[in-house]
Amino acid sequence: MGKVIIDGNSLTINDVVNVARKGYIVELSEDAILRVKKARELVDKFVENEKVVYGITTGFGKFSEMVISKEETRQLQKNLIMSHSCGVGKPLSEEVVRAVMLLRANALAKGNSGIRLSTLQTLIDMLNKGVHPIIPEKGSLGASGDLAPLSHMVLVLLGEGEAIYRGERLSGRDAMNKAGIQTVELTSKEGLALINGTQIMTAIGALAVYDAKQLMKIADISAALTIEALNGIIDAFDERVHKVRPHLGQIRTASNIRRLCENSQNITRQGEIRVQDAYTLRCIPQIHGASKDAIKYVEEKISIEINSATDNPLIFSDDEFVVSGGNFHGQPIALAMDFLGIALSEIANSSERRIERLVNPQLSGLPAFLAEKGGLNSGFMIAQYTAASLVSENKVLAHPASVDSIPSSANQEDHVSMGTIAARKARDILFNVQNVLAIEMIAASQAIDFNGSEKLGKGTRAAYNKIRENIAHVDKDRILYKDINKSFELISSGDILREVESYIGELE
């Protein structure tokens, strides 16, 4: 079993994926342990001296003017978690919940939150032993952190709420007992330290951006298959074209297409069949490349956020200084997630237009809807409908969440990010794009069969062969959703990407 050591500063997106999906064990670094202890000592000192500090000896939000006695600080923290557990909707997936727990633990490990080491260790024990709180996906404004959903995570630490343990949905207390983990009684600052942060939106975002990077390579493979099927003109991908407009994503996409189609006898040169291809063939480097560059920006923002202190107030123990700031505000992630959704939507837009080109005999020169005995058979007619439906849904989902704001807490919190909504939308768009590409890949493979697969390039041949190992040629109408699901699995599992890269090396 792999291991990830967290220190609050060096976590990577790959680490998040390994913990969330592969069950890697999590441990605190020695430096993190020392920082956590030092910050906690300062919190205890403030409580003992009854120093007025937001969230430690005061109420929250609009109640920040209400001073709480040291005798009531424990009840204050418990009340915070119970009152803030207001999430609704379907539970987040277990992989997202695992990512949330990891990111919250890593933020606390920075030593700016004032949590007790024992409480932090309980959260890590839950992660390592597979106690996964039920966290409803809706209810966060993404500004005072992801307060409502993170409170559901903390409920289980207290023996409240619900959790999944070894595939069974249990009460929080039963899950903790079965895992052999002692529940926690929160003390001063701890409730706020656990829920004031952007870990829900960032966890969803980290997994989504990881998948988006892989999906962009799949998009190049899928597009290359269509180029092969339609005798596309390779000149548009000439390196010289892209060096004079040197956007990195564009250059890399053109290179990928050239490598995928290397040695192909299907591709043509300008003027051999036609002078120009339509934009969704000719402009693949420009379209895909722009999305790759956008995803790179999102990746940078997520990488910063997963190693950030997003608590309030923040504790700087070396200076014995506590300050109430705004690092909980999700705007950096909200904008990035909206950008990710828009960038991915464009990939499905262009893919669907290529599917239409494949199934339309007036554009492809191939049998109508790629059907043998058309009329008796409908072929891929309705598969294109499905792609069009997903693309239209994406256009709705791509409307930015971050442009909206509703004041909360009696207008104390008068601008919110809606970052968690943006992250969930980006994740939904990603799923739709995976399905559109799944349809393009099987449609392109069907089209290639009419011209002969023996003419394929080195990379496209590997992709085509992998598809045909799992999905047969459609010689007469059959239930197509099963084929689409198999194609989707080849994409989401990474199987087709690994197969292609084993032949031509890593795509960019």
TrEMBL record:
<keyword id="KW-0456">Lyase</keyword>
<keyword id="KW-0369">Histidine metabolism</keyword>
<protein>
    <recommendedName>
        <fullName>Histidine ammonia-lyase</fullName>
        <ecNumber>4.3.1.3</ecNumber>
    </recommendedName>
</protein>
<dbReference type="InterPro" id="IPR022313">
    <property type="entry name" value="Phe/His_NH3-lyase_AS"/>
</dbReference>
<feature type="modified residue" description="2,3-didehydroalanine (Ser)">
    <location>
        <position position="144"/>
    </location>
</feature>
<comment type="pathway">
    <text>Amino-acid degradation; L-histidine degradation into L-glutamate; N-formimidoyl-L-glutamate from L-histidine: step 1/3.</text>
</comment>
<dbReference type="GO" id="GO:0005737">
    <property type="term" value="C:cytoplasm"/>
</dbReference>
<dbReference type="GO" id="GO:0019557">
    <property type="term" value="P:L-histidine catabolic process to glutamate and formate"/>
</dbReference>
<dbReference type="InterPro" id="IPR008948">
    <property type="entry name" value="L-Aspartase-like"/>
</dbReference>
<comment type="similarity">
    <text>Belongs to the PAL/histidase family.</text>
</comment>
<feature type="cross-link" description="5-imidazolinone (Ala-Gly)">
    <location>
        <begin position="143"/>
        <end position="145"/>
    </location>
</feature>
<dbReference type="Pfam" id="PF00221">
    <property type="entry name" value="Lyase_aromatic"/>
</dbReference>
<dbReference type="InterPro" id="IPR001106">
    <property type="entry name" value="Aromatic_Lyase"/>
</dbReference>
<dbReference type="InterPro" id="IPR005921">
    <property type="entry name" value="HutH"/>
</dbReference>
<dbReference type="InterPro" id="IPR024083">
    <property type="entry name" value="Fumarase/histidase_N"/>
</dbReference>
<dbReference type="GO" id="GO:0004397">
    <property type="term" value="F:histidine ammonia-lyase activity"/>
</dbReference>
<keyword id="KW-0963">Cytoplasm</keyword>
<dbReference type="GO" id="GO:0019556">
    <property type="term" value="P:L-histidine catabolic process to glutamate and formamide"/>
</dbReference>
